[in-house]
Amino acid sequence: MNTTTIKPENWRKNFYLFLIGQLLTGVTSMIVQYAIIWYLTLESGEESVLAIATLVGMLPMAILSPLVGPFIDRINKKFLLIFYDAIVAVIALGLFIYGINHDVYPLWMVFITIGIRAVAQTAQMPTVQSIMPTMVPKHEITRVNGQFGMIQSLVFIVSPGIGAFMVAAFPIHWVILLDVIGFILGAGMLLLVKIPEVSTQGEKIAVFRDAKEGFNILRDNKPMWKMTLIGALFMLLFMPAMSLYPLVTTKYFGGTIVHAGWVEVLYAAAMLVGSFAVGIFGKVKDRMPWIIMAYLVVGLTIGGSGFLPGNMTGFWIFLVLNVLAGVVGQIFNTMNMALTQQSFEPQYLGRVMGIVSALMSFAGPIGLIFAAPVADSIGVQNMLIIAGFGGILSAFLLYFTPSVRNYDKFLQKKLAEKTK
Fold first, then answer.
1. What is the pLDDT of residues 104-163, one digit of tens each?
2. What are the residue ranges spanned by the domains of the chain?
3. How far apart are CA 213 and CA 347, in angstroms?
4. Are 144 and 238 in contact (CB under 8 A)?
5. How far apart are alpha carbons 129 and 198 in whole angstroms?
């Protein structure tokens, strides 16, 4: 079976229909996600509860990511995306029914909900990432990743505020029902989209053999392998601080849940600016300096936040530093994803992305295990310093590894030779 293609004049319409569908389902899903975070923050306000919730949300990605790749490469991707959203919708419907008869959700039920949503997300993101290179011309891949990042940023901008408002205004079970609405809207839009097939679609699935093959394909590309390991190191040091962000605002700076929402919204708005820049001006010849710069700036801004005074003056500076981190962080995300998508053939991309997700995600839970006790011991603000050190260290490792620093130049030359 050969990879089917979209006619050049039709790819934009098809791709933007796909983006709109992802926006519709993404907004409702993320509103529910933030609503759950606000709910936990209001109900407990403890470092351990937020750290456990983040851990539960990340573990499925760390454990299951290598196993979903073979399914992504061999099963109809449109069916997979609808199936993921359907699982979340069914769980939401069950929680809604429970919430009608109970005033409060027990923590164990909230954690299970977070875990199931994480399982669906674990499979969904690599599926979307493997679809995009098949829907657009190769020379447009960086720009469309920027545009997809703009969609994600819009989701992150509107979701925290709406989630916080809805938790305050409505019982939590009515907010959770948005997942059902998102499924209906997203699935309906997806039915209008043409997603090209890849040559491996329909072949027999051998999960562990295929996962091992994806691992070997990634490892054989030495620069991408080194970049992935450095990214995992960054996540190990960075994620514990991110899981405690609401408490950094409320416990250290003395702000409120509303102030915590401002951090989320402005960070997402900054991500939108970064995505917009890549989406418009994304045809750079060498993306590695941008990726290295992004690590360094994120390290300096987030790490520097840990030295701010614990008052509202410090909070406003913290807000500004997060805006800067959001801009460069999204530049990193879009360029790094485009680099990965161009580095591997489409029929193997699901398996490779599964391995990349697993390695990047597995480091986070390891760090989160120590997040609450370390934060209790040294203070949540010092977790920001550790996170900043992770960004600076990663930038230096990338820069002083020549095969990685020069990788995009090599890749673009290789791709140019293929098109001759």
1. 778 888 888 888 888 887 778 778 877 888 788 777 777 777 777 777 767 766 776 777
2. 11-197+205-419
3. 12
4. no
5. 14
Q: Can you tell me the distance from the alpha carbon of 237 to that of 214, in angstroms, rounded to the nearest whole number?
A: 26
Contacts of 374 (CB under 8 A, 6+ apart): 240, 383
The residue type at 280: I
More reliable by pLDDT, 49 or 302? 302
Six-digit token pair at 77? Answer: 């991707």
What's the pTM value of the predicted model, to 2 decimals? Answer: 0.70
- Reply yes or no on whether the pLDDT at 3 is more than 60: no
**Which among 415, 417, 287 has a CA at the least distance from the CA of 345?**
415
Please name the CATH architecture into which domain 11-197+205-419 falls: Up-down Bundle (1.20)
Match 């909230």 to its residue by tokens.
110
Average pLDDT over residues 401-418: 86
Residues 276, 197: Cα–Cα separation, whole Å: 29
Neighbours of 143 (CB within 10 A): 18
As a whole number of angstroms, the distance between CA 318 and CA 305 comes to 6
Give me the residue label for tokens 């069916």: 79
pLDDT at res. 319: 93
